[in-house]
Structures are given as structure tokens and as C-alpha cells.
Amino acid sequence: MLPVRIDPRPGQCIEDWLEHVAEHNSMPTGQLTALIGHGEGPVRFLSVKPTDRVVARIVEMTGLSSAVVRSTTLQRFDGSGIVELDGLDPDHWSTWRRVAGRGWIHATGSAACPHCLSSNGMWQLRWRLPSSTVCTRHRCYLIEQCPGCGRRFLDHPHTPLRPAPGSRCLNPLPGRGYCDVDVSSLHTTPAPDDCLARQSRHDHALNGTAPTVLGTASNPPGYLLDVWALTILLLHLATTSAATGLAAWTNELLAETASRREENREQNLEGPSSAARGGPVRWSLHPPTSPATRSRALATADAIITAPDLDAAGAALHPWIAAAPGTTDSRLGWLADRTRMTPTLTRICIAALAPHQRISHALHASPLAVEIDQIPQAIPEPTYHRNAAHLFRAGGETPRHFLALCLARHYDPTLTWAGAADILGVPPQHGTKTARAISARHHLDLRDLDRALRAIVDDLQDDRCHLEGLVRASAEESDWFHDWSKQYRPGTRRSSLPYAVTWLWCHVAGGLLRTSPAWPEPPEQTVRAAFRQFEATLTPWATAALAALVRPLR
Q1: 527-535, long-range: CB within 8 Å, 24+ apart, which pairs?
Q2: Rounded to two decimals, what is the model's pTM?
Q3: Sequence ranges of the domains in the chain
């Protein structure tokens, strides 16, 4: 047992801790390495998964438990969804290929936050994870490449420990000592809010608390694996020719892709590699080098995974999937070949490939100026028949409501189908169901739909919000109903007042039957049938007089 024993600080990596142990005991780090290895050569995989023998030696020298020692290595995150060490035998270097083949893991090296090193001098274990890209405490991107030696920090493959602890790089240089760059003095770049939020959710998941995924509770490994798998897919899609403008970070990724291919050519690695043949870089094995690029890609994937529901996630992913090149295989097969298709990611991809998402993408690609006050819950029947009835095989409220939803999404391109319904005063789930029903039953030509929507906008002149207010007022003040029914529909009972209000709501204000202010809750089937009977018995003079009760007050 060593004379001076210190405990690792929370979150400290094993190398940094052992370097301080050596310093406190006034011994070179090389001597401590020899004691740990017990004269059996270099200590392999010390930072990843040390052998039981190495752990026993550290326990013997420091007096700590083996669990505490292993908590300072990547074994702490084994099974978390982003670190899978199953199959790794630390006594045999060849078994590393089983782990490395799963991607996004390094046997050596680390990123760093200069501000953290400046304040406490501690190298954190989570900095070793490629999915850790941001310091949430100092709100900046981590730095991963040393400007002095050009390698990742703590990248010393032939010896597990640096010559001394501290904030200096101390990576070995070929034939000339060690890199003397002080990492704590390096400049950092502020991270945007979406990257900070993603990193916070990532860190909480590593500690056992997962965020809500698609509106339901999730488990931490599942969430981390879903984000990782979707990020890989987005990286592959971002390097396709049709991905221009999907996100700001795609330009940075294209530059790194070109750089990697050039490095392959310079190192004569063209042979069997897909990158050398001009194919895609294998992002599943080697993530983007820049923490900023990697962070933005992860944040994009995280926003999709944590969307409020499956339809919203599919709508967010659809523009990316639309960038996939056409192949003889199915589109879903192309996607599955480039990432690990988890159950959640499969569901999102299927939702993104649904026809109503294709319509969403078309609406975003063809802007149309429209004011929200112009848009009713359902396009009025005369306007619908003049401009859009030929697009649909059936009439009724559904196609007219769908067209109104399209206009609402033109008004605010950030809205989903559910959001468009909500802004029109309709239950959000009704908007999603309407879009799905239309895309399933009607094969819409997107150019014809665009022409119809533009013609409808030119026809919509009424202030629908004002008309809706007038109809709601008519539901509360009922004196008009007695005079109207006595003159135009003798014998009508006062209990028919809700039907008259609903007629005004649907035919004058352009509202949906289910949202009529005549009833506190959406009407049941029997009530809807009674309204249709009332509607069918109205004469042209009765409907004109009924509409005139509201329209002159505009």
C-alpha cells in the first residue's frame, strides 16, 4: 500500500487520478505504471476496461474498492447505449476490434474544457465520450485537438500515464519530448442553446434519468442509442447532393468529408476503402472530428427523438430522408444500411416516409403569403367547389379542413399538422388524423394542390376570426332565433337553436361541426344526424335570412 493515498474526485478519469497519486507519493508516473503492471509490460485498456489483475493491484496500493477504481474508467458507462464493451478481453489486443467495430469509441485520448481545467485542474471521464461535446457549466464547446501536437489530448498509447498531472497536454512527440501546450489557456467557442440542452439531457441519461421520447417515458440506454443511431443516419444524409441547406453544419461536414478522403489518398489507403473510391465516409465508425460539428448533428437528432409525438418527429425527419438518393432498393432499406435501426428510429423513419409528410415538405418548399385571420377551420363550400373539389374523390368537411390546415402551415412553416389544427382552434390530434386520412385516400398531385391553395387565398376575403366571434355571440343571445323561425321556419322548437347556431358556424364562419359553440362538447352521432336533418330542411330563403343575421354586422 502506498504511503499517501487519495480518493478520485467525482467524475475524474483514472489517468488523471493516478498521476496525482504518483505526485503525492513523490514517484515518477512510470514507476507507478510498473507497479500497477507488476512487471508484465504496458497496461492495456487502463482507461477503458482494465484487467482484474490491474484493478487488484490498484486496490492493493490505494485501499479503495474495485468498484470505485472501475468507476474512473469507461467501464462505468458500459451498457449505457453509447459504450458497449461486451466481447472485449483486455488481455488480448485483437478483441478491441469487436468494440471498435461498434463505433464512436477510442482506446486513448480525450476532449477537454479549458475553463474546467483552469478552475480545478481535473480531467473528466465523460470527456472521453465522443457524444460529450459541450461543457454545460461554461456553456462552450469542448476542445478535442491539441494545437501543438495535432492529436487528441491524453493520447499516449505506449504508456497510460503522462509524466506529470496538470493542465498541460504532455502528449509524446517523436524524438523530442512532450507537447507543452497549456490546455487551460486555449480559447473556446460558445455553444448555442440547442447544443447545451442536448448535452444536459445526455449527461442526465448517463446518470440514469432519461428524457421523454415521442411523448412517452424512455429508458436512458434506449434514448442515448436512439440519438446516436439517428445522428449517424443524418451524417450520411448530410453528405448527399440533395442535402444542401438542411442545416448549417452540413457545410462543415462536407469539408471534413473531403479532407478525410484526401488524407486517405495521401496515406495510400485507397485500396478497399469506400472513402477512397468516392463512397461515403463510415460515420458509424469515426464521428466528425470537430466537437462543434458533432454537437450540432447530435442536437438535430436529439430534437427529433424528443419530439412531442411520432408525427412531429416524422415531419422533422422527412426533409432529411427526402435527400436520400434514389436506388433500386426501398428507401427504408437504404436508410437501414447506414445506421443501426433501433425500434424507435424505425418508427420515425416509417412516419417520415408517409405521404402526408411528403405534402408537408412540398408546403415548405413553396411559400404562400396568407394571413391567419383569413383562414377558417374548413374552406367554405363555394370556394372549395370553385377551386379544389376536383382534387378529391369525396366531399364533406375532411378535405375542406385539410386545405385550411395547409394554409395554416403556409402561414407558419414551423407548424406541424397538429400545430396547424391548434392555431385554428381545433384539437391538435384532429389535424394529424385529417392529414393521414387525406394522404391515405387521395393521390394528390402537389403542383395541382399548390395551384388550388393559391386560388383559395385569392377567394378568402372575410375576417374569419370576426365572424366566429359573431356566431359565438349569437349562441349566447337567442332573441333573434324566435323572430327568424317564426317567419322562415314556422313550428320550429326552441330546442333547435343549437342547430341554427351550428349552421351559422359551419356555413358562415367556416367552422367545423365538432367545434361549434352550440355545444360544450363535440356532439355525438345522434346530435350530428339531427343537425344534418335540420340543415336539409332549410329553404333557400331561410338560409339567406339566417346568414344575413351575421353577415351585415361585419
Answers
A1: 530/499, 531/498, 531/499, 531/502, 531/503, 534/496, 534/499, 534/500, 534/503, 535/499, 535/503
A2: 0.73
A3: 1-191, 208-353, 362-459, 464-553
